[in-house]
Amino acid sequence: MFQPILRTILPGAVLAASAALLLGAGPASAAAPTPVAGQLPVVSAGSAWVPPEGYVLEDSYVGSLSACRTQGEQGVASGKWKAYVCHQEMRKLTDIWMSFMYLYVKK
Q: How far is 94 from 107, CA to CA, in rounded Å?
């Protein structure tokens, strides 16, 4: 009963989703925001994320966005760096997803 409808709708839906991905629609294609001192973290769903120009990797760990923000804000307050960006990647370890945080700083 539903098979003819699915055969008609499903290919169109797959084609539309594929076109959206190829044309860069969605959050993965959004340009990286211009970082400023004490900036809020950036969350990225893809692994092709590139830090803003002039930023270097300071630390990486398994943790939360709030922990990364705290570390970044402490560095700005103490004068260790001028600004920071937190980047989060979800990675699957065996059969569970884990949040990996990367703290990039501008010295």
A: 36
Can you tell me the distance from the alpha carbon of 96 to that of 73, in angstroms, rounded to the nearest whole number?
A: 30
Eight-class DSSP state of 29: G
Q: 15 phi and psi, to 5 degrees?
A: -65, -45
Whether the full predicted model's pTM is greater than 0.70, yes or no, is no
Handedness of CA 56, 59, 61, 67 (dihedral sign): negative
DSSP tag of 62: E
Give the three-class secondary structure for 11: helix
Binning the chain into helix, strand and coil, the percentages to the nearest 5 are 35, 30, 35
* Strands lying side by side in the sheet with 42-43: 42-43, 83-93, 96-106, 56-62
Burial 24-53, CB ≥16 within 10 A → b, else e: eeeeeeeeeeebeeebebbebeeeeeebee
pLDDT (tens digit per residue) in 31-43: 454 555 555 555 5
